[in-house]
Amino acid sequence: MHCPFCRNSDTKVLDSRVAEDGGSIRRRRACLGCEQRFTTVEQMQLTVLKRSGATEPFNREKAVAGARKACKGRPVTQDQLACLGQQVEDALRALGSAEIPAHQVGLAILTPLRELDEVAYLRFASVYRSFESAADFEAEIALLRLDREAAALAAGPGSHAACGGTVGGSGKDAERATSATTG
Ligand SMILES: [Zn+2]
Predict the structure, then answer these.
(1) Distance from the CA of 26 to the center of ligand 1, in angstroms?
(2) Residue 27 CA to ligand 1 centre (angstroms)
(3) Count of other CB atoms within 10 angstroms of residue 82
(4) Mean pLDDT, to the nearest integer, of 159-169?
(5) Distance 38 CA to ligand 1 centre (A)
(6) Taking the CB of residue 19, how many other CB atoms lie within 10 A of it?
(7) How far is the CA of 20 from the centre of ligand 1 (A)?
(8) Positive or negative: CA dihedral 79, 81, 86, 91
(9) Where does the pLDDT of residue 86 fall: very low under 50, low under 70, confident under 90, or very high at 90 and above?
């Protein structure tokens, strides 16, 4: 890759380190032209295997497009959606496979979306799991209730999965964004 300072294409690797989770490699590089130093991160390319048999590179924004649609009109912020994208990508990378069936991407969205907004979750699940009747909604809502009660007993109220932190949004930012972007 080009030096980000002078665009020279000759760079030298000074140091390589595997990230703690084993999912990426960081390389410290020096430009042979201007001698500036910079770091590159090498990650496995996730590929999505579509139902048609075609494959395409995993795209976080595209992966959560359906969830984004399901959140329309709901009090969900851009930060929270970015966080969801991060959670989905993390979950998929944790599977340790380079090629992921499209339905697996949908599955990875269900859990964090349920944490985020139950109405959006039901919308998404109704499309993704092809709900056919009100009874399907009722069954899913009954499950949500059971899980909510179980979670309340186990962890006490207000416990939510936090974002991995690689996205800029801290809790404080998300709150600020809520008041700024709704409406
Ligand atoms: Zn340079």
Answers:
(1) 19
(2) 16
(3) 19
(4) 49
(5) 9
(6) 12
(7) 29
(8) positive
(9) very high
Residue 16 CA to ligand 1 center (angstroms) comes to: 19
Residue 182 has pLDDT above 80, yes or no: no
Is 57 in contact with 29 (CB distance < 8 Å)? no
User: Full-prediction pTM beyond 0.90?
Assistant: no
CA distances from 5 to 16, 38, 140 (A): 21, 9, 54
Query: In the numeric block, which tokens belong to residue 4?
Result: 């980000």
Distance 10 CA to ligand 1 centre (A): 8
Q: How far is CA 148 from the centre of its chain?
A: 23
Q: Both ends of the chain: CA-CA distance in Å?
A: 43
CA of 122 to the centre of ligand 1 (A): 51
Q: Give distance in angstroms: CA of 166 to centre of ligand 1.
A: 27
What letter represents residue 155's amino acid?
A: A
Whether 125 contacts 140, CB under 8 Å: yes
Which strand (E) or helix (H) includes residue 138? helix 134-155
Tell the burial category of 21 from Cβ atoms under 10 Å away from its Cβ (0-12, 13-18, 19+): exposed
Distance CA 114, CA 17 (A): 36
